[in-house]
């Protein structure tokens, strides 16, 4: 019997978040900053390539076409380097994930993603990702056959396993296979830390695992411990801080993961400071700018969040970002306006979500339900009913559709907490 099959949906949701974060860590080898605690072999000097550095800069600014171009050339020049192979693999994967809307973290805020529609991934891209994954694994395995304690090869193999976990989870919805691959990534990186405790890059993946397992309920933790997985939220955050400050190649991605967990811990000032630093460093990264606005709203700084969302819309329309997903900004703006009791402004923002041609079905369902609630508050019952009917027709048997059916019978009412 597979030991992971007993994990409930809540655990699987956390595991998917883990998979997304861990594969993001896989890109940390491209920044070109050599690890201060060890000497990098000249034959595999993954930080020495100008193409790796330029590709990293493009990647972190979400200029995926340029990143793929640079990493393709780099992999051709360093055909035996698993780090170069991982760079190209990660860039190709994230380009496709962003194209299909899979990088919207709001999609994973509830268990509904487990039964949601699969993303419409290009079959040719999926096959390309499989080939790149096999190639990267083969390169790491070749080095490990010659030396089982090759730290860089262990690290690179863990990165590839994490990337495969994301492919299995987000593209194929093969949750248990994805989880096994993510656990394999953790174990490779734990071995790296056994061999070199100062290898701060490996603390990124392990720290994420520690935090997520530490966040699960006691019963799920017990099940995880039976397969050798321990966890601690405190230790996870500590590891992420060490990775982000370690001067290693994982510092940027460790900072991203750390900010997400600090937000969950409601340590908003720390998270805002971290993401603000990333926004300054990567001014063309649309998702970082969006997360900054989201953090302001989560921290209760509604007016600042509204200004940030509107500024983001203006900048995106002026060409500051490559291929921005404005529907995600409109959703965030609607949430911020709703929090400020500007219900008319909120409904306009929610309605705007559906005006974008690439809006994902899950986000459209959320926006339609929220718009219906706003119309009920504004006593525009006919418009509210129309929105609820759209949710029921599109969402099927989901919690969101159940709420819509409820509101078709009885209008939505603002919770009293809104007016405290």
Task: Write a structural description.
- It is a single chain.
- This protein is mostly helical and 420 residues long.
- The chain has a domain at 1-193.
- The chain has 19 helices and no strands.
- The chain has helices at residues 9-25, 50-60, 64-77, 82-99, 123-146, 151-171, 175-195, 202-215, 218-226, 233-245, 251-264, 268-281, 286-298, 302-317, 326-339, 343-353, 361-377, 381-395, 399-409.
- Helix 3 runs antiparallel to helix 4 (82-99), helix 4 (82-99) runs antiparallel to helix 5 (123-146) and helix 15 (326-339) runs antiparallel to helix 16.
- The longest helix is centred in the first third of the chain and has 24 residues, at 123-146.
- The radius of gyration is 22 Å and the shape is globular.
- The model is unreliable at 1-9 and 25-46 (pLDDT under 50).
Structural class: mainly alpha
Radius of gyration: 22 Å
Distance, first to last CA: 51 Å
The arrangement of helices and strands along the chain is HHHHHHHHHHHHHHHHHHH
Rounded average pLDDT: 84
- Biggest sheet layout: none
Unreliable segments of 5+ consecutive residues: 1-9, 25-46
- The gross shape turns out to be globular
Total count of helical runs of at least 4 residues = 19
Range of helix content: 55-70%
The total count of strands amounts to 0
List keywords for this structure.
disordered N terminus, 68% helix, 0% strand, mainly alpha, 420 residues, globular
